[in-house]
Amino acid sequence: LYKKILETATDAEKEEATWKLIRAYYFKGKYTTSDKELKKKIYDLGKNIGEASLKEFPQSPGIHLFLAIVWGVWGEEYGIIAAARKGVAGKIKELCEKSIEIDPKFDEAGGYRVLGRVYFKAPKIWPFLRWPSKEKAVEILKKAYTIAPENLTTKQFLAEALYSQGQKKEAIKLMKEILATEGISEGIAEDAVLKNEVKTTLEKWQKG
């Protein structure tokens, strides 16, 4: 449906349909298949659309943010070496920083949320990739949490970053808040996967 809209859409309508199409490819790859090769093909489609649309919509927080997200899952599927060759961590960082510059509150502080995650997850590779920092991740994710404290993904990412820095009590509190949240927050599939991840992480922490 988004592809059909893009056949005739212009200006703001086209920009919105573009980032929502990228988001749809992310969802499709993340939640509708476990086939690794199919995931790669789906993420490639989303990534290619996002990269092609940046020149047309250089001030779109949505295109920058969801392209960053698709690059992230693309890196997960293609592996660390392929991601390093493509400079994926740096691309995600730049895209998130641009999304924040345009609209820091977009998608419940999505720019800060994803930026904090890449600071947390990206490997520090001296001397090529020196900026990743779990301590810095906490600082960035706290900004996302301040803007949108009820966002479950932000809570999860912040909890994991806090735990890595020895702030275990606060981390466990945030994780338990996620599991206690009733109703649908981010979507049926998203909530189910996230809460399962949180439950697994909590069990691991409590054993440790």
Description:
The chain is mainly alpha-helical and 208 residues long. The chain has helices at 2-6, 11-31, 36-53, 61-78, 80-86, 88-102, 106-121, 134-147, 152-164, 168-180, 188-207. Helix 4 (61-78) runs parallel beside helix 7 and helix 7 runs antiparallel to helix 8. The longest helix has 21 residues, at 11-31. It starts with a helix and ends with a helix. The mean pLDDT is 96.
What are the secondary-structure elements, in order, as H or E? HHHHHHHHHHH
**Major β-sheet annotation:** none
Task: Indicate the multimeric state.
Answer: single chain
- What share of the residues lie within helices? over 70%
Give the termini separation. Answer: 47 Å
Counting helices, strands and paired strands, the structural category is mainly alpha
Task: Give a short summary of the structure.
With 208 residues, this protein is mostly helical. It has helices at 2-6, 11-31, 36-53, 61-78, 80-86, 88-102, 106-121, 134-147, 152-164, 168-180, 188-207.
SSE map:
Layout: H1 2-6, H2 11-31, H3 36-53, H4 61-78, H5 80-86, H6 88-102, H7 106-121, H8 134-147, H9 152-164, H10 168-180, H11 188-207
Helix pairs in contact: 2-3, 2-4, 3-4, 4-5, 4-6, 4-7, 6-7, 7-8, 7-9, 8-9, 9-10, 10-11
Question: Could you name the key traits of this structure?
Answer:
208 residues; mainly alpha; globular
